[in-house]
Amino acid sequence: SVNLLTLADGQTMPQEGFGMYKITDQSTITSSIKYAYDAGYRLFDTAQLYKNEAEIGNALTELALPREELFITTKVSEPNQGYTQTIASVKDSLKKLQLDYVNLLLIHWPIERAFFDTWAALEELKKEGLTRSIGVSNYQMIHLQYLATQAHEMPVVNQIERHPHLNQLPLIKYDRAHQIVTQAWSPLGRGTILNNPLLEKIAKKHQKSSAQIVLRWQLQSGVAFIPKSIHEARIKQNIDIYNFQLSEQEINVINELHNFTRVGKEPALVYEYNLKY
Ligand code: A2P
């Protein structure tokens, strides 16, 4: 079953969760959450940007899943950054999700505008109990270093694009040294990497699918990860990774597939930070 990671603020977070990007229609949302819950997922990841918070709220209510078992993440979108906008938008997210609190609230992307004010709003929302933990997404080292110059508390999670074509090993090392859990989005590279012959060879040896090999690599790398699928068989398959182990050599082979290919956008480097910092 899924490991629990202890975050720097003392909260626990399932290492594996269910990503909900690009799942938007109500019936697909309800069915995928049901498949995922029944398969053992407890972490459900959404964002204001995904435009599915209301549908997820309806599904959680309809399925009557016990709130205390669930770990719900949402993220503040770029247009909603800024102190008052962030507070208002998170209250709106909670209304849509039909929840009193989320477990984890993230700043979705680093942007120059309202960089510190948005973080201050997250600190305040945590104080008010509207989120248990606060973190960031798509932050590079420079953003974390800049944030540290004014933050009262630091992010406990940094959710970033990570898969075998973008292994992020330096950032993971930096996060770990600063008590930040790295959480991988698009842990399967949106499916683009799955027919790599080296992965297929490892998969054949373990009698698993390439997707399971990649997720097991994520697990053994010590990061959290949130695969997405709308299909019951894949949802089950993606959490059926706890009964085998990759060797150190296999982990290294997968690390070497790194070729800097992103499936999402590149986080803005925000050159002014470099000037100011
Ligand atoms: P689908 O939702 O149709 O199953 P990521 O989590 O890296 O963003 O990857 C998600 C993509 O990978 C989706 O297109 C999803 O398609 C596909 N996918 C998810 N799980 C598997 C799997 N076990 N085997 C093959 N493709 C998968």
Based on CA atoms alone, the radius of gyration comes out at 18 Å
CATH top level assignment: Alpha Beta
* Termini gap: 43 Å
Strand order of the largest sheet: 3-4-5-6-7-8-9-10
Could you give a short account of the major beta sheet?
8 strands, parallel
CATH topological fold name = TIM Barrel
- Beta-strand share of residues: 15-25%
Question: Which compounds are bound in this model?
Answer: adenosine-2'-5'-diphosphate
Number of domains: 1
Structure write-up:
Belongs to the aldo/keto reductase family. InterPro entries: AKR (IPR020471), Aldo/ket_reductase_CS (IPR018170), NAD(P)_OxRdtase_dom_sf (IPR036812), NADP_OxRdtase_dom (IPR023210). It is a single chain. The protein is an alpha/beta fold and about 280 residues long. It has a single domain (about 10-260), classed as TIM Barrel (Alpha-Beta Barrel). It has helices at about 25-40, 55-65, 85-95, 115-125, 140-150, 170-175, 195-205, 210-220, 230-235, 250-255, 270-275; strands spanning about 5, 10-15, 20, 45, 70-75, 100-105, 130-135, 155-160, 180-185, 225. The chain has an 8-stranded parallel beta sheet with strand order 3-4-5-6-7-8-9-10. The chain has a two-stranded antiparallel sheet with strand order 1-2. Helix 1 links the parallel strand 3 (about 20) and strand 4. Helix 3 crosses helix 4. The chain is globular and about 55 Å long. The N and C termini lie far apart (about 45 Å). Bound molecules: adenosine-2'-5'-diphosphate (A2P). Adenosine-2'-5'-diphosphate binds near residues 187, 194, 211, 228 and 234. The site of adenosine-2'-5'-diphosphate has 18 residues, from helix 9.
